[in-house]
UniProtKB/TrEMBL annotation:
Residues 12-155 form the Glycosyltransferase subfamily 4-like N-terminal domain. Coiled coil: none annotated. Pfam families: Glyco_trans_4_2, Glycos_transf_1. SUPFAM superfamilies: UDP-Glycosyltransferase/glycogen phosphorylase. GO terms for molecular function: transferase activity. This is Glycosyl transferase. It comes from the Bacteria. The lineage of its organism: Bacteria, Pseudomonadati, Bacteroidota, Sphingobacteriia, Sphingobacteriales.
Length: 389
């Protein structure tokens, strides 16, 4: 008697990013749901302290050694392209997603060279384009060359999408807007009452970079204290990163010693810190995608004061869920901080409730996951994957 043996071949999806940290912190929900659907998930990125976290989810990590954080070196970037190509040729994934500038350039080209479909995600224009000059021209040319090889290019905000349209970097038919990276509104959910405002507590949470407006926040808090206002300003995040605009631990300690701010260190779980503050302050003038910290704060019913800047203004509704201020304007920022202090606690609390309602409606992780699954199922060789969350 003949017995038929059906060989079930698991589908493979690879993600190329500039850090394991970003894949774990921004896309953990996506990775977990794909693995739950019996898909082999690979992350290609430089090794960092979050590799173990990814592997604990069931992710197969592939270390990338040639990805330099800054600058474009023709020889180094050729080596990066060859490293991507070698890894993808060995893995033979069914689909690739890429994030940030170099993966979006060289990861897309490498995928094309080994005939693997790829979706590029523009997570913000970043340092390469925002710097201006020769570097901007180089990045635009490289994007134009590489992204024509992507099946789809996703944008996290309308400003970035319009930039690519206006500069004719990419065929409009490939462009699609998605609602940021999404946030798990059930995980980021308030468990204790909104705090009273004696004294009001303002928090910056994120990478401690000058172009994220950290120094502007510290100076604005100093202005309020000079006026005799009893407020607390706190910083939460990593210091001394490889970024050229990183703020050193020494500078943070000097701000502490002057009595301007408190440094609360860094954490893998921002929720208890958000629950004890009245407002998140994120005065960034960086070319953001959709700032994760604003989504997490809103989901936790915490109002935000941020800049009228790309990505930031997508999240905060001025006067309703927080305030928008002009970038690089310390006086404007201090004025809005003072306006917030003068609100009653009920007004602050209601502003936070509206923030959560907005995040649930526009930026929930569920919406983003559904877009990923629709895109995955659009490829004929992946159509059998259940495209629901």
């Amino acid at each position: 008697m003949n017995t038929e043996i059906q060989l079930i071949v698991r589908k493979k999806i690879a993600f190329i990013a500039n850090t394991a940290w970003s894949m774990y912190n921004f896309r953990k929900g996506l990775l977990k749901t794909l693995i739950a659907k019996k898909i082999d998930v690979y992350v290609l990125a430089p090794y960092d302290n979050y590799v173990a976290n990814l592997e604990s989810l069931g992710v197969k990590f592939v270390p990338i050694t040639k990805l330099a954080a800054r600058g474009f070196n023709p020889f180094g970037d050729c080596r990066l392209l060859l490293e991507f190509k070698k890894a993808l040729k060995s893995l033979r994934p069914d689909l690739v997603f890429t994030y940030t500038i170099k993966p979006n350039i060289y990861g897309v080209v490498a995928s094309k060279l080994v005939s693997i479909p790829v979706v590029a995600v523009i997570t913000g224009l970043g340092y390469g384009i925002s710097k201006g000059g020769l570097l901007t021209r180089i990045v635009k040319l490289l994007y134009s060359f590489s992204l024509k090889n992507a099946e789809k290019v996703w944008f996290l905000n309308t400003d970035d999408l319009h930039y690519f349209k206006q500069n004719q970097i990419l065929d409009e038919g490939k462009m699609q807007l998605i609602p940021g990276e999404g946030v798990d509104t059930m995980y980021f959910r308030r468990t204790i009452p909104f705090p009273d405002d004696r004294p009001p507590k303002f928090l910056y949470a994120g990478r401690l970079l000058y172009d994220k407006g950290v120094e502007d926040f510290v100076k604005a808090i100093a202005l309020l204290k000079e006026k005799g206002l009893n407020v607390t300003g706190a910083l939460l995040g990593f210091t001394d990163t490889a970024n050229p605009t990183a703020i050193t631990r020494k500078t943070v300690h000097e701000w502490e010693a002057e009595g301007i701010i408190e440094y609360w260190g860094n954490t893998d779980d921002v929720r208890p810190f958000l629950e004890k503050v009245n407002c998140l302050v994120f005065p960034s003038y960086y070319s953001e995608g959709i700032p994760r910290c604003l989504l997490e704060a809103g989901s936790m019913e915490v109002p935000s004061i941020t800049t009228d800047n790309v990505g930031c203004r997508e999240v905060v509704s001025d006067g309703q869920t927080g305030y928008l201020v002009a970038p690089r304007d310390i006086d404007s920022l201090a004025h809005k901080l003072e306006d917030f202090v003068k609100l009653s606690n009920d007004e602050k609390r209601n502003m936070g409730k509206r923030a959560r309602t907005r995040v649930e409606a526009l930026f929930s992780e569920r919406q983003v996951l559904e877009m990923y699954y629709r895109q995955i199922a659009a490829f004929p060789h992946l159509k059998e994957i259940e495209c629901s969350v």
